[in-house]
Amino acid sequence: MSSIVELSAVQLAEAIASGEVSAVQATEAYLDQIEKIQPQVDAYNEVLADQARAKAAETDAALAGGKTLGPLGGVPIAVKDNMCTAYGKTTCSSKLLADFKAPYNATAVEKLHAAGAVIIGKTNLDEFAMGSSTENSASKVTRNPWDTSRVPGGSSGGSGACVSARLAAAALGSDTGGSIRQPAAFCGVVGFKPTYGRVSRYGLVAYGSSLDQIGPMTVDVPDAALITSVIAGRDPHDSTSADRPVDDYLAEVNTPIENLRIGLPDEFFTDALDPEIAQAITKSAELYKDAGAEIINVSLPHSRIDADAAGNLSSYAVACYYIVAMSEASSNLARYDGVHYGHRTEEEVDGIVELFSKSRAEGFGPEVIRRIMLGTYTLSSGYYDAYYNKALKVRRLIKNDFDQAFEKCDVLLCPTTPTSAFGIGEKTADPLTMYLADIYTISVNLAGLPGVSIPTGVGTDGLPIGMQLIGPAFSESKILRAARMYENISGVTRLTPEIARI
After folding, report:
1. pLDDT (tens digit, 9 = 90+) per residue, 205-234?
2. May I ask the CATH class of domain 9-256+471-501?
3. Mode of pairing for the β-strands spanning 118-123 and 76-80
4. Domain spans of the chain?
5. Could you tell me which of 146, 276, 322, 489 has the fewest CB atoms within 10 Å of its CB?
6. Which run of H or E residues covers position 170?
């Protein structure tokens, strides 16, 4: 493995700025890694090699001319293929948008450009970000770099696999119910979902507008801190973005938190959790305690996770989330009608209604169709109050539980996923089982809170185990510092699968 791709994004940016490594060398190192490993993991929908080389050469010329590079100057970064870029395609891994070229860049992408990043490609995802395994992509099935017979998670599975296999120094993902954190856990990388509104959603193709949030996927916590600092902030194009100052998360990340109070939610440690993952989380709590933190048991009653005698899982949060998310998906995806842009049926049609119907049926995959139908049902007359309205009330109760928990502690520590990465095809026949892969992450989105998944190590099955830290709204700095504390006291950071060591 090239020594360049072993560097973190922070280290690579410093090496380029100092002249130790050129931006062209960095880009070529990653393009070489992509050529070797991409066929085995299929993390990318599109590799933007020519554009990346041109940007890298421009970066080197600027540095030679005495200009100061941005904080990500020359660093190759991948972008999930549901964020608009004015170059390449923005497909959302859907047949419906297979040839769509966006006329503008998402704000998060623009901020990466402004920081000097080299956008090296667009990564695969579950179609329209609807899934937990990246098996719902119309493009390809991305494979987990730790075991290519297993999924990388979803919906940001391409971004997770990309960072894990060192096919980019870092990547952007989007998180609606765990779509950054769950694949981060499965792939052994850091995945950070900021507070709702901390990062602009302008240019992110909408799935659930009250839930979606863009965030980084990186090899370690300082990289996540750097990229969050770059992409966060108020955006006049997004009325839901928060008008709050952005801290220098990287400058603060290595400062330990004194008298840290860590809450363990009782409801998350039930029979629903794999015993080895439970043991890993318990060990993590003990490491924090040895470092001076106080461990406190707290309760999140409306996020309780139960398992029946047959092992079937259930949770108020899951039911609430899928009503809210699918309702918003039904509304957001109504714009794809085969007229304005996107796939249009080539069959003869009798009127505009049939044109809409056939174009959408041909363009959308089965999981997207399922979610649109369920969302349309829950919003329909006679069912709106019974389902959607009730889900909003439960959402408020879930948020209240978190608020009460944070009166006793600074952050919550819990699993990211109930199991390690499952096999490709293992859950596709049972959508409900697939939905439960996000059972520990969705309540964070419902409450609009920040959360980060970091690796705790590798299990006996040879697969990474992730743990999750959750904090109050706009406590990004605190969560990242707590996560970095764990990296420092545990020594677990920058896990690398064997496939990336080529």
Report:
1. 999 999 999 999 999 999 999 999 999 999
2. alpha beta
3. parallel
4. 9-256+471-501
5. 276
6. strand 170-175
